[in-house]
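Provenance

Sequences were taken from public entries as deposited. Structures were produced by running a predictor on each sequence independently, with no templates supplied. The record for Energy transducer TonB from Phocaeicola barnesiae is shown for reference.
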Amino acid sequence: MKTVRFYCFWVIGFLLVASCTRKPAQKETKVSEPPSQEQIPDQSEGWKIIEALTKAYGDNPNLIGDFIGSSRCPDFLEGRYFDGNTLVFQVWGDTTSARQTLEKTSGSKAFRIEQLTDSTFSEKQLQCLLDKLNSRFNSLPESKLKANMISWGSTAHYIEVIFIRNTPEARAEFRRLLMDSPAIRFFGPEQPVRNNTTGASEVYGICLYPEYTVYPDTADTASFILLNRSNGQITCGEHYFITYEGTDGQWYELPINTFANDIAYVLKPDSQHRFVARLYPAVNDNKPGRYRFFYEVSLESGENIRMMAEFRLTDDYEEARRAGKTPIPKTTGRNYVEVPQTDEQMVYQVVEEMPEFPGGMPALMEFIRKNLRHDKAETKVRVILQVVVDKEGNVTNPVVLRSVNSILDEEALRMVSLMPKWKPGGQAGKNRNVRFTFPVTFEPSGKGLQ
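Predicted structure for Energy transducer TonB:
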């Protein structure tokens, strides 16, 4: 009998001011971040100023921060945002007069002024555009464009639209059917992202397999069964990813909506969980061939295991129609505590000779600097990545350990996909699979704040 319990945890949305999604936009679950000396921004002083201005300018003093565009708000004030710890106000006209007014009203000088020009967009302007975009999207019939849009919302200076596939055709269709404005920036994978990750289909009495032996290449979804025949309970969630085999024999990520609710399912021994993965055929134009579904499970010991189930898409629709269910695999073990990992599976944290980028750490930092699209960040920020350098020197299993937002995470992962082979790590005279962690720093140009 299937025994599943649900634990739901709400997580924070990814956009600074406002966001809209076809489903609630939530960050994908990340692994715990490593120790860091960087501190969480202290914005308490800025929020005291916002509270004071809400009382002075807001139509409803109980809605803290809701005063931009209100009937009592000065005409010169059109927006606010935080740059790290510092509160920034967006104003038109005389910045000296604006500062004096805001200092007097708030009782504080702990803020900066950004002077608006015809080439910049304020919070008020962006909200107006966002309202129009929401209305037009809701009126748009179901289409490839609508299926391709993951999320959209406003940041400090732009409206950001995230696509499953950020192609020139998608951007042109958006501008034609929804909105054409210089305030809009588009994000999402523009080129295939190489990902030769592998996983275990059966380990410790736990197995993952496709529900059917083959699916049509037009299928919206594919379903998978996670079977727990170990002696302990396991936990799994909602997040997954899929790769496909390219014509060059390499594996690439299938673009999908990577935002997922943070839900945990607990499977007791001799229970199973059915998972349905979306394939987005209208967006991806999926080809017949081999695909891999990846799904992470956690043991009671705290160990995480990446499970993998290979499946196939076909353009022989009669074959797909006749396809039967995959036979339940005969698992090899019951007690996962007693089944050791093989050398082939083992991933080391520390070895005698750590993996090395060609030319060493300075060359790695230079590669990141040259290949990263720094303009995707509003301010200087840092994403922490972890990869596994396998025994052949391939860079695999990229994971974001510390996230800034989904856009920068995606850009950092794109940059990793461009890396050449490394010198593999070694232990006892043999090459080993080794985890390696490094920072990815975005350094955009200055914003001209006063």
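Residues 1-21, 23-38, 332-341, 446-450 have pLDDT under 50 and may be disordered.
The longest helix spans residues 123-139.
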